[in-house]
Amino acid sequence: MGHRLPHASLKPFGFVVEAVKIVGLCVQVRLRSRDLSAACPACGRASRRIQSRYERRPADLPLSGRRVELTVLTRRFWCDAVLCGRHILCEQFVDNVLARYGRRTQRLETIVHHLGLALGGRPAAAFTDRLMVPVSNDTLLRVVRRRTVDQHGDPNVIGIDDFAFRRGQTCGTIVCDLELRRPVTLLPDRKLPMHRNILQCDDTHVTALIATLKSE
Predict the structure, then answer these.
(1) Residues of 101-115 as b/e, b for ≥16 C-beta within 10 angstroms?
(2) 3-class secondary-structure state, position 137
(3) Which of 48, 119, 133, 161 has the fewest CB atoms within 10 Å, counting from its CB?
(4) How far apart are CA 132 and CA 130, in angstroms?
(5) Domain ranges, ordered by start, for the chain
(6) 15-72 pLDDT tens trace
(7) Quick one: pLDDT at residue 52?
(8) Between vectors from CA 10 to CA 4 and to CA 13, what angle results, nearest 5°?
């Protein structure tokens, strides 16, 4: 005797299932947020006045040997705050469920990250095909790099160089993390002591930089 699969087992946290459809080897689940309003990222005011709707189609964990594609009905709201510079805001979801611009749910992203760490690019890409969550080797490496950057703390190796805001007129200082090969901060000039507002800021990266420069 067959048993009907409850919709609650298909949806991520914070969503409501509107419809489920099986097309070949794919399970299509249509979702919407259970929240009635969204907060403006600029002023923080909650809004219920809907401007328009659009669909996001992130991938999710497979189900019984079938790929799962979510269709998330996402709303745009009007911001009614008079002094707010943002007039239209897009509905955002919890980061540990579905990140902004995310192509996969976070529970699938976590598995992709661990596969990339354990197997590398091409072997992990071949394995994800068998798991019914096809991901390219380049995507696997990007996920590993992105999560490594997010979890990284203070830089251990700092590179300092000057650059021009305007060629031949205004110069500043760029500070880079040489291990991750990415900028840490930009400073407005090339001189020490620096501006008082930089010396008094709480940025740990700038604090580490100042300590390094003073020790030289």
Answers:
(1) ebebbbebbebbbeb
(2) helix
(3) 161
(4) 5
(5) 13-102, 104-150, 157-211
(6) 888 888 888 888 888 998 888 888 888 888 888 899 999 999 988 888 888 888 889 9
(7) 92
(8) 140
